[in-house]
Write a structure and sequence with these properties.
The complex is a heterodimer. By secondary structure, chain A is an all-alpha fold. Chain A is built from 13 helices and no strands. The longest helix of chain A has 33 residues. Chain A starts with a helix and ends with a helix. The chains are: A mainly alpha, B mainly alpha. The interface between A and B is large, with 96 and 91 residues.
Chain lengths: 266, 267
């Protein structure tokens, strides 16, 4: 056991570090947003540009998260069962964790943009992807792709295949086995993965900045709105939008905590 | 292993759906990226990557990412140690806060770091538009990686060996260095590698506070963004491919190391 003075010194260094690089910046968003009182904050929230950005971010998240949840379950089942080609699939699923969001955005432009691979064909058919909603959704799906699958692969390995085989022997169809055996076992990991995916989807900035075209009240998400208001020296509006995003992040962290303690309990 | 009839069909279907989804969503755009970077031949790819501002941005990216990674390897291990082995009031709140850099949008992180450690700093620290600002931003966004990698290992660790060493007269530092550190090393390295990979591509948190001065504070992702905005997609694609390769190499090495470590653990 370390002596209490050594222990207190370590505690002090760790907490001072966290205060400096983590706690102070987060506290400062709130202090800065409300420094002039509630009235300017309320005005900033009621502006159409803010409301539209909030709405767009919500729509994008509501499309991207279910898409990635479904894909994550299927991909995790593929990776966990070790078929040929699984390590390739695993690397591609993990790739967005390590890939620059700007690179993701550029890749989307080069594939689906006006001068991209499919640009001419899309234009002929009157479909616009880049600088419009589909590209924002695609970018968000890519950057938030890994989280559900990464949570589920270890769970699937842990539970093994015996129960599923038993169910199959007893005459369950693969579909019944999935609904009755696999999905209930994945419930907790899936919830955790969905929350992580939501956090990433709500907060994506770099990839969306490249593909959205940043048209105010058309393709401006909440993160882009923060940047746009900041560049326009409208600091109160920038900090208000930033505060809304920060509060969403706090909710995410609290939900993650609750899920973790629930997982420990069961 | 016996297989129930019909399951293999679903398995193939699952693999088919994943492969199609991931091809349309991820692989086709990445193929277009790689293709654009070399469309004008290998020479122009090389010229784009080795042009002075591109090379400077890549060098700077590696340098500041390494700096932030080293700081967080040390401090992250220390924080994890304090959170697991120490007991103090508010520990659970601090533990929960570690996840915030992950959940907080990077542009919000950049905005608040600029307000706190920029020209109008309330604490009198101004690092805005310098390389220090880049390291500070990267430290913030990669903070959770080492802490969250080390914490579970520390919790699982058997303390009998430490107690035995202490009863044999080993000092605290010797115990840490000879017994604790070797057990934590894979987690520290793994967390650091993921954090480093994240730092290499970071954009949102650095774009406001770094000032994006070419040759001074312009990292690779900001350089790529600038080239896209200037309508030079080929140069942007070439530097992007370098970042893409770095990510692939880091992830592959990490995957191999994890497999080797887990095999050791089971032996």
């Amino acid at each position: 056991m370390p002596t209490s003075s050594g222990r207190v010194a370590l505690r002090f260094v760790a907490l001072a570090y966290l205060a400096l690089v983590l706690i102070a910046p987060i506290a400062w968003i709130l202090i800065r947003a409300f420094s002039d009182g509630m009235t300017p904050v309320w005005e900033a929230i009621n502006r159409p540009a803010f409301l539209h950005a909030l709405w767009l971010t919500t729509v994008v998240t509501l499309v991207a998260v279910p898409a990635n949840a479904v894909f994550g379950v299927i991909a995790a089942m593929c990776v966990a069962r070790r078929p040929p080609g699984r390590s390739l699939l695993a690397v591609v699923v993990d790739l967005p964790l390590a890939l620059s969001p700007v690179v993701v955005g550029l890749a989307l432009i080069l594939a689906w943009g006006r001068t991209g691979w499919f640009g001419a064909w899309l234009a002929d058919h009157g479909i616009q992807i880049v600088f419009s909603l589909p590209a924002i959704v695609l970018a968000t799906i890519i950057v938030s792709l890994p989280f559900v699958a990464r949570e589920l692969v270890p769970v699937l390995r842990e539970i093994g295949t015996e129960q599923q085989e038993a169910a199959a022997v007893l005459g369950a169809t693969p579909f019944q086995t999935f609904w009755r055996i696999v999905l209930p076992a994945l419930r907790h990991g899936l919830a955790y993965g969905v929350v992580l995916t939501t956090a990433r989807a709500l907060g994506e900035y770099g990839a969306v900045a490249v593909v959205s075209g940043r048209i105010a009240q058309r393709t401006e998400t909440l993160t882009l709105h923060v940047d746009e208001r900041f560049q326009a020296f409208d600091l109160t509006a920038a900090y208000t939008a930033a505060t809304v995003l920060a509060l969403m992040a706090v909710v995410v962290v609290v939900v993650l905590r609750l899920l973790t303690s629930e997982g420990d309990g069961s | 292993m016996t297989r129930a009839p019909g399951t293999s069909t679903y398995r193939a279907l699952g693999l088919g759906i994943s492969a199609t989804f991931i091809s349309v969503v991820v692989l086709i755009p990445l193929a277009a990226l790689v293709w654009t970077s070399v469309a004008d031949g290998g020479d122009s790819f090389w010229a784009a990557v080795t042009s002075p501002p591109a090379l400077a941005s890549l060098r700077l990216t590696v340098m500041v990412s390494l700096g932030a990674t080293i700081v967080n390897a040390f401090m992250g291990t220390l924080v994890a140690w304090v959170l697991v082995r120490d007991r103090f009031w508010g520990r659970r709140v601090v533990d929960a806060l570690i996840d915030l850099p992950f959940a907080l949008p990077t542009i919000v992180a950049g905005l608040t770091l600029l307000a706190l450690y920029g020209p109008r700093s309330p604490v009198g620290i101004n690092v805005a538009y310098t390389r220090h600002a880049l390291v500070v931003a990267l430290i913030f966004v990669t903070l959770p990686f080492v802490v969250r990698a080390v914490q579970p290992v520390l919790m699982e660790m058997d303390r009998e060996m430490e107690e035995a060493a202490a009863s044999l007269g080993a000092g605290r530092w010797a115990i840490f260095r000879r017994i604790v550190l070797p057990n934590l090393a894979p987690a520290i390295l793994g967390g650091s590698a993921l954090g480093f990979a994240k730092a290499l591509g970071e954009f949102g948190s650095v774009v406001l506070i770094s000032g994006n001065i070419p040759f001074r504070t312009e990292v690779a992702s900001v350089y790529i963004f600038g080239q896209i905005e200037s309508g030079v997609p080929q140069a942007a694609a070439a530097v992007s491919v370098v970042l893409l390769l770095a990510s692939l190499v880091l992830l592959t090495v990490l995957g191999l190391l994890e497999r080797r470590w887990s095999r050791h653990a089971h032996e």
